[in-house]
Amino acid sequence: MKIAGISGSLRKHSTNKGVLRAVAKILAEKGIEFTLVDISDIPLYNQDVNTQGIPASVQQAHDQLAAAAEAIVLASPEYNYSVSGVLKNAIDWFSRVENQAFNGKAVSIMGASPGLGTSRMQYDLRKILVFLNAFVLNKPEVMIGQSGGKFDDEGNLTDERTTEYLRKAVAALIDLSRQLNQ
Length: 182
Ligand SMILES: Cc1cc2nc3c(=O)[nH]c(=O)nc-3n(C[C@H](O)[C@H](O)[C@H](O)COP(=O)(O)O)c2cc1C
Fold this sequence. Notes:
By secondary structure, the chain is an alpha/beta fold. The protein contains six helices and eight strands.
C-alpha cells in the first residue's frame, strides 16, 4: 500500500508538515510507503492558462500524488476559519487534471493550530472533497488544538498522546482504503 500527503502550509517549520512527518513515521513502522507531495510550485489558478493546458508544475505534483497514493492525508492549518489558499488552489488545479487523483480515494483530513485545531477548516475541506468524489474518513477526526505545546520549534510533533491518536487515525484510513478497494 502507498499513501501520499499534502500540507496546506508551505512554511519551513510548519506544524502541519510536522503532522505529516509523524504520519510517515507511523506508516514506516507498518512497512507502508509515504510520499509528501510538494505544492509550492503550483501557480495561482487561472482559467485562461488552464484553457492552454495544464502547467507542468501542476501535472507533476498531480502525477506524483496519483502514483504515490492509494489513500491521501491532507494536513492543513485553518486560515481565517477555512482552508488555506495554497491547498484550495492546488485542489482547484488537480480537479481539472484528467483522471484526477482524489477520485474514489480514502482521504484523512488532519490539522494543527494554536486555537481550536482547525475544526472550521475541516468541514469546508470535506465539502470540497465531495465534488472530487473522495471518501473522507469520518472518524477519528484529527483536530490538534493548542498546538503551541505539542510541537518543537522546527514543527516536529513531540506530544505522545497526539502521536497515539494519529496511530488510530492512520489505522482507520488504511481500513477505509481497503474497504473501498475490495
Ligand atoms: C493568514 C492566517 C490566518 C489564520 N487564521 C487562523 C484561524 O482562522 N484559525 C486558527 O486556529 N488559526 C489561524 N491562524 C494561525 C495558524 O493556525 C498558525 O499560524 C498555524 O501554526 C499555521 O500552521 P503551520 O504551523 O502548519 O504553518 C492563521 C494564520 C495565518 C497566517
